[in-house]
Amino acid sequence: MNTLFDKIWDAHTVRMLDGASCVLYIDRQYIHEVTSPQAFAGLRRRGIGVFRPEQVTASPDHNIPTQNQHLPISEPQSAEQVATLERNCAENNITIFPIGSERNGIIHVIGPQTGLTQPGMTIVCGDSHTSTHGALGCVAFGIGTSEVEMALASQCILQSKPKSMRINVEGELREGVCSKDIILYIISKLGTGGGTGHFVEFAGSAIRSLSMEARMTICNMSIEMGARGGMIAPDEVTFEYLKGREFAPKGEEWDKAVERWKSLKSEDDAIFDKEETFDAADIEPMITYGTNPGMGIAINAEIPSAEGLDEASKASFDKALAYMGFNAGEKMAGKRVDYVFVGSCTNGRIEDLRAFAHFVKGRKKADSVTAWIVPGSKEVERMAIEEGLRDILQEAGFELRQPGCSACLAMNDDKIPAGKYCVATSNRNFEGRQGPDARTLLAGPLVAAAAAVTGVVTDPRELM
Amino acid sequence: MRNKFTTLQSTVVPLPIENIDTDQIIPARFLKATTREGFGENLFRDWRYDNNGEPKADFVMNNATYKGEILVAGKNFGCGSSREHAAWAIDGAGFRAVVSSFFADIFRNNALNNGLLPVTVSEEMLAEIFKAVEANPATTLKIDLSEQTIEIEGQPMKEKFDITPYKKQCLMNGYDDVDYLVSIHEEIENYENER
Question: Is pTM beyond 0.95 here?
């Protein structure tokens, strides 16, 4: 077995339990306020502590307000959850980046940004978008709270080894197409269960050509096709991104690390359980029309019909269109947009804010649109202010909010009202995801920008 | 120590919808608790209740005809968020097994870690179950974990289902993984020292 995935997984296998399950050692665990309290409660009940607190890092992100973060959280349950995280970290000597502190942010944004995430590692977090970290060449995946407890108790989890899958995207991307479009395109082709049971390596010249942050967007959404995780072999782009970051190795250690990381790739004769190849030239700016991330089309295409689907799938398809208030055969372009959300662990990094800001520069937000621009971390917010992006946004009628998961899952006050349409750069368009009866159209930052200034779904290339 | 799972014979609650994600099973706004209890009330919250908290008559859990300890759902059940609250909610609502033709990975692990048995059946068997329950809501399924079999009572259709030997032992004996991992701390330390 000589895929990149096998190399990292096998090197972290402490022991095999049966033909399928193994004890997997975890290099780095990230925790947040929503999926960790019951795990700490479990440890207390058992009378045990955290096994390797120095390998655990916490950041409150899911539940926090994106305005007035200097004030106490007004919603009592959210406040209690965040306070519980702080207490659990203090009691167990775990490093936490509290709300408002310079390192706070969405855990999947700050892991890479601080250099805590490094090639070759195994990383877990009680959040399915932990797959984001795979962009740096690690085996990173989301787990449930029982597994959070396992990792806290032993720095290991029990896991069946997933199968391996490679997705190649070859050739040159067309103008106006970004990495979000690539991953929405792939999921639209493979479906929301197309990667289930597999760990995906993304490869090919189009993937190689992407910046580090653009790669994170791809790996982030690998869970949306059901994959256990996604990863990209580390290369010069990776090393350049990590060099000098706070927790990255320094000096001689850095040189040794890079030498080691260079071996992290699938061998030429590596065999994957499943392999798919796509042509980058076929990919256009994408948008979703339904209630799962696989229901995406090119922005100028028509909503497909349920024709050809079996009875069970047809019912689910019709249910999705009814929820969205759309009909088969309609074009997405021109549809009304009430809200625009830019942010999340998918597209809340500085490059996303730059892309959005540069697009709206010299234009004005449509009066009918409410827009929330939410940086993925305090550091992204700082950079956006320093680079003058906040000024550009303000000039165009947009407000830069404070970091957090925000309207991606609407656990805080950032909820889309019932029946309203929101173009969101986040990762899920499930029913009610952004608030009860809210309707989500997933897209990249450029499509979001074009919708924000026109008030309707618009191909950004028409305005470029 | 959890409840032990050996065999289960029960009527079912049928939910013939595909790609049921964990946001439907338990919406994010109900994830603010710091304990594992109480999620059952909000299982399928937005399908089950309207915005005023009134039960929606057309949802199966509000139909007294259908009840039981087995939830049967369309393929790709439990996709999306890793929230274990989804498994807690199903467990909390009194289910002990979920039957589908395809489960999302994280949900399956979460279910197993809570003594909730995910049973993967063929597309044909799933269709048969839905058909049988529609014809007669009193139809019962029989699940035997030791034999790894599932059958529709009174019908010839019977299938084997997969589960790893380790997880099967855990469920049948009520063990959990944390106890096991803590018991091998020394081996984990050796691994750390030798790498």
Answer: yes
